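User: I'm new to structure prediction. If I give you an amino acid sequence, what do you actually give back? Let's try with this one:
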Amino acid sequence: MLSSLVLYIALVIGLCVVMLGLSWVLGERTRYTRATLDPYESGILHVGFARYRFSAKFYLMAMFFVIFDLEAVFVFAWAVSARESGWPGYIEMLVFLTILIAGLAYLWRLGALDWAPQARKLPAPRAGPEDATHINPASAARRKAK
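Assistant: Good question. You get back a string of structure tokens that encode the predicted 3D arrangement of the chain. For your 146 residues, that looks like this:
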């Protein structure tokens, strides 16, 4: 048993070495020039910088989609076997969906599902020296007299 396992491992390693060696010997040598290092996609030349940064909101939305899409698979599998699982399966699915809806409500309330940024309120304007008339009416009267 052990000798056959050792023989199998030796054959796998030997096959890998032979394939890598043959590709190195028979493979084409590429001269790296500016034209060969340019990105090429179906005959369309690239425009701009390829390292465009996505917003973190994009990755959050993708993560939420994967999570809630996976839950849909569980619900579908339950729907297929609903008759066999009976009332206990029905109650378990209700608990599962309740937790799922609570998680969705939490994300919604947290604002994680809002794609666009919220409009901010501007702070109220501060009182300046010209608004000081309500503090000292005598100085306001002197200003008007001048």
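You can read the tokens as a compact description of the fold. Here is one thing that stands out. Helices lie at 2-26, 34-37, 56-80, 82-110, 137-145.
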